[in-house]
Specification:
425 residues; alpha+beta; Conserved hypothetical protein from pyrococcus furiosus pfu- 392566-001, ParB domain; Conserved hypothetical protein from pyrococcus furiosus pfu- 392566-001, domain 2; 2 domains; 9-stranded mixed beta sheet; 16 helices; 21 strands; 35% helix
Length: 425
């Protein structure tokens, strides 16, 4: 099963600046304006490594910056290997919550080994970018986010004990989230945690691109004769969170359909009538629509809201249609809301095939329902579909079946901060 190890993390030193000025959100949700703002605040911000933009070859520039920062003491490796216990405090629907997990090095395993499991498809462009950065720097600057099952709370209990004291790092970020990091180097605790993970499967929640890139990089290093089995590139840095953690929150990712020639909303709804119960909601507010979706979610119905200037709630009448559309697949995959939407509505009824969806030719994504609505209202989209979130148990079951959800099926919240601790191979 999973091999999880303590490691000597690479972290910013005190003279690099205040830690809140040095970290940033995940690279793929940062605009160019935000990137510039981080660097104006502190030129040592990790964004220079994680999302390089300078020079003719930004990746090589990132490698040079890394070397400079290590030699000047901006960055340094911790003296002893340890586990890094990470907690984020946030608010969900007005309720204060927190998410706690542990950051360690995890041995890379091909998906077919059934030890580390993906749950959704990936896009090749992002993997090419991350591979070039990894070649130039030999580092993980951000963590892959993975889940594990811990019903007896064996690992969770150990993490609570290890984080009972004052954290090594504590601050509130620009979005009002509290960020805390504890460093556990006691050999007895480290050994107990490594042993506790030895019988676990890991389910990738966020960071599929980075995981697949890490596998590619490991193989490339061996092909180049620069690494052998057991070297640092055999491992990737992960944040590991128990599936049972009460702070685990998954948001839906909504769909915006755009650029469809001859689009007629009425025709789409008419074709949906064969498969869905339809409730028109003219003039309904976004909060009213979300309440209707919540009600369907609570009783396990497969429903989403169609928006073309007004809302229509679509609820699947009979799941048996999905057996015909996705023969040979697991019930877990067939019965996902996103599978119903992609396979039955977008592909069969609207003619948007899977290649089109993957290339985002006629389909874009957003986690903000207001953004989906605004895109239609401003003429940037033909229509939008608002979804309910995928359940964590559904993610587990699809992964266990050896299958993958469509891309952008989940949005785990909150996103993990980049730069608190990094992994140098």
């Amino acid at each position: 099963m999973a091999t999880v190890k303590a490691f000597r993390g690479m972290r910013f030193s005190e003279h690099a600046g205040s830690i809140e000025e040095l970290v940033c959100p995940p690279y793929d949700i940062i605009s160019e304006e935000q990137r510039a703002a981080y660097l104006r605040r502190n030129s040592n911000n990790v964004i220079r490594l994680e999302l390089p933009r300078e020079g003719e070859n930004p990746y090589e520039a990132a490698g040079r910056v890394l070397d400079e920062w290590l030699s000047s003491g901006v960055l340094a490796l911790d003296a002893r290997p340890g586990f890094y216990i990470y907690e984020i405090g946030f608010s969900h629907r007005g309720i204060p919550m927190s998410l706690k997990g542990v950051i360690g090095r995890v041995k890379l395993e091909p998906f077919e080994n059934g030890i580390i499991l993906p749950h959704e498809e990936t896009l090749s462009k992002a993997k090419a970018d991350r591979f070039e950065l990894m070649k130039a720097t030999g580092c993980n600057f951000s963590q892959i986010y993975s889940l594990y099952m811990d019903p007896a709370k064996e690992i969770s209990g150990r993490l609570e004990q290890a984080s009972a004291g004052m954290p090594a790092v504590s601050f509130t970020d620009e979005d009002g989230l509290t960020q805390k990091l504890w460093i556990e180097t006691d050999p007895a605790v480290v050994g107990a945690l490594e042993k506790a993970f030895a019988d676990k499967k890991l389910y990738i929640a966020d960071g599929h691109h980075r995981y697949e890139t890490a596998l590619h990089y490991r193989d490339w290093m061996r092909e180049q004769g620069r690494a052998k089995e057991g070297d640092g590139c055999d491992y990737a840095m992960m944040m590991l969170v128990a599936m049972e953690h009460p702070g685990l929150v998954v948001y839906p990712t909504h769909r915006i359909v755009r650029g469809m020639k001859g689009f007629q909303a009425g025709e789409i709804l008419q074709s949906c009538g064969e498969y869905f119960r339809m409730v028109k909601m003219p003039g309904a507010s976004l909060s009213q629509v979300e309440a209707a979706l919540d009600a369907a979610y609570a009783i396990g119905e497969k429903a989403f809201a169609f928006y073309d200037g007004n809302f229509t709630l679509l609820t699947l009448k009979d799941l048996s249609v999905m057996e015909a559309l996705l023969p040979g697949t697991s019930r877990a995959l067939r019965e996902l809301d996103v599978s119903v939407l992609h396979t039955l509505v977008l592909e069969r009824l609207m003619g948007i095939d899977r290649e089109n969806m993957a290339s985002q030719k006629n389909l874009t994504y957003t986690k903000a329902p207001s953004e989906a609505v605004a895109a239609v209202d401003h003429g940037e989209g033909n229509c939008a579909f608002l979804l309910n979130p995928t359940r964590v148990t559904e993610i587990r079951d699809v992964a266990l079946a050896g299958e993958k959800m469509p891309q952008k099926s989940t949005y785990f919240y909150p996103k993990l901060t980049t730069g608190l601790v990094m992994n140098r191979f």
